[in-house]
Amino acid sequence: MLANKVNNHISRLSRQSPWFIIIIFLILGLIGILNHSMWRDELNPWLIVRDSESFGDLIANIHYEGHPVLWYLSLAFLREIADTPVMMQLFHIGITSAAVALFCLYSPFNHQQKFIFSFGFFPFYEYFLISRNYAFSLLFIFAFCAVFSSRKTTYVYLAIFLGLLANSNAYALFVSFSLSLTLLVEFCFDKEHRKQYFSHSRKYDLFLSIGIIAFSFLLAIYIITPPLDSYLSGGLKNGWVMQLDIRYLLKSIDRLFASYFLIVPHKRWLDLIICALIALFVFVLTLIKLSKKPFPLFFYIIGNSVILTFTYLKFSGSPRHFGHLYLVLIAALWLGSHYQDSTFLANKFSIQPKSLDRFQKWHHIAFMLILYVQFLGGIYGFSRDLIVPFSASRETAHYIQESQLENEFIVASRDATMAPLSGYLNRKFYYPELQRMGSFTLFRQGRTEVEQAEILKQISSLLKNQEDTNKVLLILNKKLNSNRDDLKIIPLKNFERAWVDSERYYLYWVDEA
User: Parallel, antiparallel, or unpaired: how do β-strands 487-495 and 410-413 relate?
Assistant: First the structure.
């Protein structure tokens, strides 16, 4: 009966209604996210929250993650409701669905563009099925854009969203900084806006807003700054690139191309050059498109410059990282709708109206091409996840539970790939890398990478020294290619069906020979 009522309501909705997109998105999202097999990057934060001994211990552990606190505090709240990572997935679908709802209800794009964007690679896959803090970027950027006009009377709402955005992830911090700088530039150079604001705002509004932003930025920077004993520097292996490297410069510019067209060129000079030229061409078209909107234009330049500078100097990133360049494009175009056209830049650079109109048409073609590529990427990623498990973790955990093995003494390695199993089974394992029981992984001093021979050596010692342990369930993320004369090793089952090749699991019984 309930299903029939829902179907009747959906059928009565006009396909031109934004709610049609939102409801379809939510229904498909529930199917997708409940089918999704979570991997280590999703469940490691859950385990940090679950197994930190105190709030101070939690904050200390977050320092090694290279991420601000908002996601971890959200998970801590969710655990008070139900101690299962499924809560995290449901919360995550709520974040992204709210972001898509804001986009569909309040953005200036036409219905076709809203539909294509909503089911694109980042909203429908990368920031949707994979439960991480990057979904906050979608939500808070879109919330900022939706209430942008409120700055005429108060900056508090914008300051709150900027503060939340800054404490979402490092790339969201870059976007938050760029948006804050745009507000500052507008406040300093737009006399009419400043006059209108002072005539309608309360006395303390400006100081309160500045205080919120400043506190949020300081908190985010404090948390993401890695401790001295973090040997991955907040998850980033390489140092700063302080010399000119043309190949690496092209590779960094190509992250802009990848954020738009979802193709990541690698080493060939021809690929790097062609993709960089296409990216710069789209970038210039967008500059011309926004030339009548000086402040959104400023944001687009600053937002791209900050992220690409970090990309070159420190970390080239993955789709979840450079996807923020795509969000900068969307936000800049959205913010442009809040402003009247200005001829200031066109007159300054002597751009003819006909030439400007021609470039506007080219930009529309390029933008629609980007949206369609993103749409195809979203459908592909979503469909692939329904067919091929992202990680073999859930299937492995189900087998362990069905075989009633979850209470056995479990030795698991490599520790960094075992977080999904620890999360699904809701228990700790013995990690040879730590030589003790554990669940989450922090890349700091005291943790050592181990070879399979060392793993078997530690198991042999455990069997000899612990009277209550007469056999061990060994879980590896690679096939066992080592042996010991004093151990009897029996292969149990392999789980190799996974998109992430480092999260295929191999189970063995190990006892004394």
Answer: unpaired
DSSP string, 317-341: --HHHHHHHHHHHHHHHHHHTTS--
Terminal Cα-to-Cα distance of the chain (whole angstroms): 61
Non-local (6+) Cβ contacts of 318 within 8 A are: none
Give pLDDT tens digits along the chain (513 positions): 555 655 555 555 567 889 999 999 999 999 999 999 999 999 999 999 999 999 999 999 999 999 999 999 999 999 999 999 999 999 999 999 999 999 999 999 999 999 999 999 999 999 999 999 999 999 999 999 999 999 999 999 999 999 999 999 999 999 999 999 999 999 999 999 999 999 998 989 999 999 999 999 999 999 999 888 887 654 455 667 778 889 989 999 999 999 999 999 888 999 999 999 999 999 999 999 999 999 999 999 999 999 999 999 988 889 999 999 999 999 999 999 999 987 767 666 666 677 777 888 999 999 999 999 999 999 999 999 999 999 999 999 999 999 999 999 999 999 999 999 999 999 999 999 999 999 999 998 889 999 999 999 999 999 988 777 789 999 999 999 999 999 999 999 999 999 999 999 999 999 987
Q: By C-alpha distance, which of 282, 392, 292, 396 is closest to 337?
A: 292
Across the chain, which distance is largest between two alpha carbons, in Å? 86
Buried b (16+ CB within 10 A) or exposed e, 288-309: bbbbbbbbbbbbbbbbbebbbe
Q: For residues 237 and 279, what is the distance between their CA atoms, to the nearest angstrom?
A: 27
Strand partners, 487: 512
Cα–Cα nearest to 391, from 356, 431, 412, 419: 419
Strands (E), 359-503: 410-413, 429-431, 436-438, 471-476, 487-495
Q: Is 268 helix (H, G, I), strand (E, B) or coil?
A: coil
CB atoms within 10 A of CB 385: 20
Cα–Cα dist 509/396, whole Å: 15
Closest by Cα among 364, 366, 334, 338 to 99:
334
pTM of the model: 0.93
Query: What size, in residues, is the chain?
Result: 513
Angle between helices 18-35 and 2-12 (to 10 degrees): 140
